[in-house]
Design brief:
This protein is an alpha+beta fold. It has ten helices and nine strands. InterPro entries: Ketoacyl_synth_N (IPR014030), Thiolase-like (IPR016039).
Length: about 280
């Protein structure tokens, strides 16, 4: 986990907050890129049953906010993170937002390329490949693109990364009383790594979480841990995505948001521990 100056992870363990106390915030923006769902409006139509889900490779937007040199170096996972974050925070001064970046791994394609290079006699590594391969690269590019100096956390919890990011972002909203942007995303690996970590494509979701209700509020979200079993998606066609891509553990939550439906869903988190998520439409 990386922490920007001015924010300490210890604040998330404030003794005034009871253990397993529910964490609540208002969702005021959503960004989504996933196979067959290039953005949140397209995903909403699918999740509402207004359009069929058609399997297709994830479409990644050009990182137009980056300076030309960084734009040329931007990898798939960096384009993904910037795309979902800017969609969720549209209309907001993104330079002021605290951020939480959460992913189950780093950039799969760069990892593959580095392994290929190291398996040859010429083991000189491209500096660009190296700095794009590290887990916090998307957070660094976000700072360059948005000129943000706000607190930033970078997390990894393997298949529980969406849940870990959601808890951390909600903790900042509740305890630090600041709007926080959660970006949860994953990248696919080429073969032969794909056989061991079979993520089918890159995908990600971003949620803009705020302390109070605003005119842009979509719903109030309340989260606490539970040992109840996780629930699948309502749409059977999307269940393989939810199961295969850690960031898409968010799909049951997103279904309720898209449908404007108050409900509680149970999302996979860590072995033997799930997240009970209550959605109340604004």
């Amino acid at each position: 986990m990386s922490t920007a100056p001015g924010h300490s992870p210890a604040s998330l363990h404030d003794e005034s907050v009871p253990v397993n106390a529910p964490l609540s915030a208002w969702i005021t923006g959503v960004g989504l890129i996933a196979p067959g769902m290039p953005d949140w409006p397209g995903a909403r139509a699918v999740l509402r049953g207004k359009a069929p889900w058609v399997s297709a490779p994830s479409v990644l937007p050009a990182p137009a906010m980056l300076p030309p040199a960084e734009r040329r170096r931007a990898s798939r996972v960096i384009k993904l993170a910037l795309g979902i974050g800017l969609e969720a925070a549209a209309g907001t001064d993104v330079s002021t937002l605290a951020t939480v970046f959460s992913a189950s791994g780093a950039d799969g394609h760069n990892c593959h390329a580095l392994c290929e290079q190291l398996a040859t006699d010429d083991r000189h590594i491209s500096p660009t490949r190296f700095h794009n391969s590290v887990h916090n690269a998307p957070a660094g590019y976000w700072g360059i693109a948005t000129k943000s100096m706000a607190p930033c956390q970078v997390l990894c919890a393997f298949d529980g990364s969406f849940g870990a990011g959601l808890i951390d972002a909600l903790g900042q909203v509740v305890l630090d009383r600041q709007a926080t942007l959660l970006l949860a995303y994953d990248s696919e690996y080429p073969e032969p790594l794909h056989a061991t970590r079979p993520v089918p494509d890159c995908a990600g979701v971003a949620l803009l979480l705020e302390t109070g209700r605003t005119p842009q509020a979509l719903a109030r979200i309340t989260v606490q841990t539970t040992d109840a079993p996780a629930r699948p998606t309502d749409l059977a066609s999307l269940e393989p995505l939810r199961a295969a891509i850690p960031a898409m553990r968010s799909l049951p939550l997103l279904e309720r948001l898209a449908q404007g439906r108050g409900d509680e869903v149970c999302i996979e988190f860590l072995p033997g521990l799930q997240l009970a998520v209550r959605i109340e439409p604004a």
